Amino acid sequence: MSSAKESQLASAVLMIRPARFESNPETAESNRFQGKTDAPPAEQQAAALEEFEALAVELEGCGITVLRFDDTPEPHTPDGIFPNNWVSFHADGSVVLYPMEAPSRRQERRPDIIDSLASDYGYAVRQVIDLSHHEDAGHFLEGTGSMVLDRVNHIAYAGLSTRTHLDPLGEFAQRMDYDIVAFDATDKSGTPIYHTNVLMNIGEELAVICADAISKDDQRTAVLERLTQTGHRIVSLSFDQIESFAGNMLELKSESGERIIAMSGLARQALSDSQREIIEKNATILSAAIDNIERSAGGSVRCMLAEVHLPLAGSAG
Q1: Residue 143 to residue 152: CA distance in whole angstroms
Q2: Structurally, how many domains does the chain consist of?
């Protein structure tokens, strides 16, 4: 069990440079946000690589440490650009590996990257918790896509879907000492939303959420009450805004201690003036145009960033 005190905001992120990025037919059925392009795979990869580099440079320019690793051409992992689904890093030195719905996505789990964080970057990896055995039973939990973590209060918010099941959620909660707030969520057409981080984000003081997507009244009330109880100011999003990936943002902290909230250009444009004003009083907005990645794969900036909360080797952590 984990009881280490943890900041909500990371100052370092893991990013995976794409090698053969393209819209993945294995994930299209459950992700209604993807496949909105007719570009051939080579064009999707070239555009994604350019967008990846631009986002990484923007993050570094704001004082965020970016740990870049190259994806592998083989095995083909078309969604390898989204590492937050297969791994999460925690302040007690835990690394959690997650069960993935699509067989091609299971190939994204990279022990060599975890080894490199310890050997090349000086992070302390004290235990690896591997939940991937749940794949054998057809149960999945796709990391901080499936869960939005309140790391300070050890609460995991999770919208149930074909990619987010109660059994692995329960094991995560037990092993990492988290409470689970589970709910059902659908888009405006009534289709289940595949990942929780599409509809909400939790920062130090702000919680940005499309509460209308939570389909049961009692569950919606429970989520909003829990966010309020933990001291979060709620910024409400509409269905149209989450379709523009406005929910898929991530609050980080620069090396100088400044709050940075990262999102795509499309997401920023979708916010109203009043929403932007609230967010900008809380953090500096960093936005990057990743239109091709969003159209092809149905994921946005938050999905591209796996926060590194690991302690440095030798620290009390």
Answers
A1: 17
A2: 1
